[in-house]
Amino acid sequence: MAATFNATSNPWLDHGDNAWQLSAATFVGMQSVPGLMVFYAGIVKKKWAINSAFMCFYAFAMVMLCWVCFAYQMSFGEQWAPFLGKPGAGSSLSIMGSLSQAYIPTSGVLAAFPMSTLVYFQSVFAAISVILIAGAFLGRMNFLAWMVFVPLWLTFSYTTVCFSVWGGGWLFKAGVLDFAGGYVIHLSAGTAAYVGAWCIGPRLKQDREDFEPNNVPLMLVGAGLLWLGWNGFNGGSPFSAGADSGVAVLNTNICTATSLLTWMCLDIAFFKKPSVIGATQGMITGLVAITPGAGLMAGWGAIATGVLSGTIPWISLNIVGKTKLFSHIDDTLAVFHTHAVAGLLGGICTGLFATIEGCEAFALTTPGGAIAGNWNQVWIQIYSGLFVIAVNLVVTPIILFSIGLVIPLRMSEEDLLIGDAACHGEDAYAFYHDGAKEIDINRTASSASLALKGNTPVEVLG
């Protein structure tokens, strides 16, 4: 006989809230798989399409397992160290624990859905954080080193920031406002990406000079999945299917559209033509910047944030990013500018534009931001952002240098010339021989050796 679940024994369960939370979590998961998978696969050179997508695919799986085994408790459990919860599976793997009512540390209230739903919702946030970092490492990181980096960064960086901001740690107690992860996810990942890119070193010179996307429509498919998936990212963060979810979703789309259009106008003004890649960058910075305050602002605040997120990261990338301070570090997809800069900007905008009503709807006692007369909130947002940056400036290099003692962080020069065929024995597209191709690694490696000597056959570089 099939087991039955007695709903009357769980009067706290709201089926609508539970359904929305699971749906929102799935939307966020789809931002990574397949969203960022196809975005990365399309925006890189053909020879890196498989490796770039596979870095996302692997990270999503590894984070899920680590999350339920110990990382969830380190992020949201009982305090164990100054910046961490006590490791352990706890309710993540226990049947009874998974059926129990979820507790939300950020608001100090019990949710109307089970712990299993909350653990899954938070797991996809953790996964996309690591996957965003991959964007800065594309085109040269050793896949085996990436396999080790993912669980270590999750364990020692993500959980530290997450517990501090969301899990009841010191920044949470200080009153930092981070509605859906502008600091926990984007500022953290963007900083780690930049520092990590320095540790790993740059791509091949010819790849840095010529890195045209191999499939722009595929890249746009990924961008579209990111945009619409963000409705779950921000809309699920109130942990209920209530009015605040609707506000968060609307503000997310208002800010994103404004940011995209602002970025595009700047491209036209300075480069004399609109760029689809530039437009996607403006879209991303808008999504990132609204994340800390999506449900805490009025619509005009979302528009103001969108104008700023389409302007300041544009300046950061296209002007400041061309100076020696930044140009010597090879951040493949400009993750620092689109996530770290936009994430910190969004946090400060939240300190400026958060309303009293928005904070009350999110069950916060914070009396709004500067617009409501609480200028101290801006200062709280600034030093909280600096803490997130500091954690990743310290932890990320330690992790990478430790891995480098055992596993090379970079692929060999020959593998860098070949790409996917050398890394995985596979090719992204086979538009010949009726769609079939036998990948001859030995022949390709021989051609790569000639290329390293200065005699480059046409078929090697793709």
From TrEMBL:
<keyword id="KW-0924">Ammonia transport</keyword>
<dbReference type="InterPro" id="IPR024041">
    <property type="entry name" value="NH4_transpt_AmtB-like_dom"/>
</dbReference>
<keyword id="KW-1133">Transmembrane helix</keyword>
<dbReference type="InterPro" id="IPR029020">
    <property type="entry name" value="Ammonium/urea_transptr"/>
</dbReference>
<protein>
    <recommendedName>
        <fullName>Ammonium transporter</fullName>
    </recommendedName>
</protein>
<feature type="transmembrane region" description="Helical">
    <location>
        <begin position="20"/>
        <end position="43"/>
    </location>
</feature>
<dbReference type="InterPro" id="IPR001905">
    <property type="entry name" value="Ammonium_transpt"/>
</dbReference>
<feature type="transmembrane region" description="Helical">
    <location>
        <begin position="145"/>
        <end position="167"/>
    </location>
</feature>
<dbReference type="Pfam" id="PF00909">
    <property type="entry name" value="Ammonium_transp"/>
</dbReference>
<feature type="transmembrane region" description="Helical">
    <location>
        <begin position="250"/>
        <end position="271"/>
    </location>
</feature>
<feature type="domain" description="Ammonium transporter AmtB-like">
    <location>
        <begin position="20"/>
        <end position="429"/>
    </location>
</feature>
<dbReference type="InterPro" id="IPR002229">
    <property type="entry name" value="RhesusRHD"/>
</dbReference>
<comment type="similarity">
    <text>Belongs to the ammonia transporter channel (TC 1.A.11.2) family.</text>
</comment>
<keyword id="KW-0812">Transmembrane</keyword>
<feature type="transmembrane region" description="Helical">
    <location>
        <begin position="213"/>
        <end position="230"/>
    </location>
</feature>
<feature type="transmembrane region" description="Helical">
    <location>
        <begin position="55"/>
        <end position="74"/>
    </location>
</feature>
<dbReference type="GO" id="GO:0005886">
    <property type="term" value="C:plasma membrane"/>
</dbReference>
<feature type="transmembrane region" description="Helical">
    <location>
        <begin position="283"/>
        <end position="303"/>
    </location>
</feature>
<feature type="transmembrane region" description="Helical">
    <location>
        <begin position="179"/>
        <end position="201"/>
    </location>
</feature>
<feature type="transmembrane region" description="Helical">
    <location>
        <begin position="382"/>
        <end position="407"/>
    </location>
</feature>
<dbReference type="GO" id="GO:0008519">
    <property type="term" value="F:ammonium channel activity"/>
</dbReference>
<keyword id="KW-0813">Transport</keyword>
<keyword id="KW-0472">Membrane</keyword>
<feature type="transmembrane region" description="Helical">
    <location>
        <begin position="119"/>
        <end position="138"/>
    </location>
</feature>
